[in-house]
Design brief:
28% helix, 8 helices
């Protein structure tokens, strides 16, 4: 009986296949696009001349996208620069913890990016916001997180320091592009149901400002792999109980479409600077 590869060996296989399919031996930066962010991907290469796109399922260990607003595609994008070209690996979908595929599947894209050579990763998501001054369609930098899934992607007794998980350097870099950017602490619930008003009250009590169903496990895996992490949330709605309105995934996607220009401009200007 053949043993299954370890999560790290599976990522190595996916990175090797990625290099074969794209003709790019090494990528430099990774980007994971969350719910509502898909329209912003076009700003990274508006003409498509520098982009190679493939199905994520062409790579070992990836499953088809299971959530509306995620395309199931992976793009290799050449970023021309004065000091030479760099290559961005963009995942236009992610596997969520609530899909039941296991934590290894959730962070497989991150580990593949690390195996492909990426030294930095930008993790984006659509989320609920707790600050009254935030409005739907507003991007917010993640300064820290609280992981309420009760799980970790790290295999074995590997003790990884998360003190400065979300790079202050990269947050400051973002503010050189958009000085108005606010920041907050992101709280991941398991999902797929939205939070109750009482749970949002708990988030306030423990110091959270943003709530969603992704990102924290990926960030931990990225740190384990030695990557610098930038997290950006798109506030797609006010969190449960704040506005009195019911929550719905269509609202998340609509907020993303409405904010696509601002998000695309932000990514298009920040990513080449990393």
């Amino acid at each position: 009986m053949t043993e299954s590869p370890t999560p790290y060996a599976l990522a190595d296989q996916a990175a090797s296949r990625l290099a074969d399919l794209t003709g790019v031996a090494r990528h430099d930066i990774a980007l994971v696009l969350g719910s509502g962010w898909l329209p912003a991907a076009e700003a990274l290469d508006p003409t498509g001349e520098n982009t190679t796109e493939l199905d994520a399922t062409d790579l070992p260990g990836f499953a088809a996208a299971a959530v509306a607003g995620h395309s199931g595609k992976v793009r290799s994008i050449r970023l021309p620069g004065e000091s030479g070209d760099r290559f961005l690996l963009a995942f236009l979908s992610r596997t969520h913890f609530y899909e039941g595929r296991g934590v290894g599947a959730v962070v497989h894209g991150v580990r593949t990016a690390a195996a492909a050579g990426c030294h930095a990763i930008v993790l984006t998501n659509g989320c609920g916001g707790l600050k009254d001054t935030w409005e739907p369609g507003q991007p917010v930098l993640i300064s820290d997180h609280i992981n309420l899934t009760g799980r970790s992607p790290i295999v074995g007794a590997s003790f990884v320091d998360l003190t400065d998980l979300y790079s202050q350097r990269l947050r400051e870099l973002c503010r050189t592009v958009d000085p108005s950017l606010d920041e907050g602490i992101y709280v991941q619930f398991p999902g797929p149901h939205y939070e109750t008003p009482a749970e949002i009250g708990m988030v306030r009590a423990i110091g959270g400002h943003l709530v969603g169903m992704s990102t924290t496990l990926e960030a931990i895996a990225a740190r384990e792999a030695g990557m610098e992490v930038l997290g950006i949330s798109l506030v797609t709605n006010l969190a449960a109980g704040i506005s009195g309105d019911p929550l719905d995934h269509a609202e998340v996607l609509e907020a993303g479409r409405a904010a696509a220009s601002r998000m695309g401009d932000l990514l298009g200007r920040v990513v080449p600077l990393i």
